Amino acid sequence: MNKIITFYPYFILFSFGLLLSCANQKNPIPLDSFTDKNKIVVFPVSDPKNIGRWKLNQEISDEFESSVMDENKWYIVGKFKNGKPFYKHPDKPNKKVWKGRAPSQFSGRNYRLSNGKLILETRWEPDFPFSDEIKKPVFGDPLPYQNITTACIIGRREFKYGYIEIKSKAADAPISSAFWSMGEKLEFDFFELYGGTNKPDKIHLDSQLWWSIRDWKKPITGKPTYTERKDVGFRVADDFHVWGIEWDEKGIKYYIDGKLFSEVISDEVTKWAKENRKKVKLPEDYNGYVATKPISLWLDQETFPWHDIPKTKEELEAKSPDNEKEDGIVDFEIEYIRVWQKTN
């Protein structure tokens, strides 16, 4: 494992003195960067000296070093009860829980913790007890749930603004590996990566970052008020990469492996929304920068019918290593999720 963590088990007094000696320097390391639990210092990959004065929010962040999922922090969608998956959010028992994008369905069995990583699994599983619900989605055609199960993990705590960082590797298959979030009438998609399509005309998706801000209020009703699709210069399923999102009331800065990749300010988001949502009548004072509310984090995998749907286990596993082509499982691997917020 190459997690960017520095431990100080025997040098706390020395470190305290060093911090005091730096008090008059331009960019001192704040005392509260030390966590009470493990005495860990960890900063964003793009800001190793912590010029931004970030403080790690341990209530949201997770290193996935445990052998069991922290269910006080995460809701595992589709856990089994009496031989079938059930869909009830522990904090919102009266709210309908999404079962996944058909034909794939979320299963609470499709994850594991291994070697300090959370691994979400997409499985070829035609004998799964699929829901018989066929519902017209907001986008696309109604399809039955069948053959493919995926994973979904939802954060149980909300936060507003900060620096969000994930180190992950997308599944090498025609399935999305997604890190996103939901708030009140708000969807903020950090990435929806499509790691290994089988279609020659879709090969560009293997190296594409797709991120979006979506307004779920009428009349937009889930369409993006801002979105970007950009080539990142590497296949997203080939190796681990660090994706960082700096988010505040002024806009978004997007980092990949510690380097600034893209940025947009709130006024540019509104301009984009008005130029690209002309089919709906927007108020004159419409503000497209709706990412101004608390959010909870989501990790999942989904089929994207408009791109490609694996029709067989062989199609799902086409890009898997030879010794793994028969298990019917492809993995989206997450080494950590970290969220920092300003110390002031």
TrEMBL record:
An example Gene Ontology biological process: carbohydrate metabolic process
Entry keyword set: Hydrolase
Record InterPro entries: Beta-glucanase-like (IPR000757), ConA-like_dom_sf (IPR013320), Glycosyl_Hydrlase_16 (IPR050546)
SUPFAM superfamilies linked: Concanavalin A-like lectins/glucanases (SSF49899)
Any GO MF annotation of the entry: hydrolase activity, hydrolyzing O-glycosyl compounds
The keyword Electron transport is assigned to this record: no
GH16 domain boundaries: 20-344
Gene3D superfamilies: 2.60.120.200
Homology family: Belongs to the glycosyl hydrolase 16 family.
Name under which the protein is recorded: Glycoside hydrolase
Organism in which the protein naturally occurs: Aquimarina aggregata
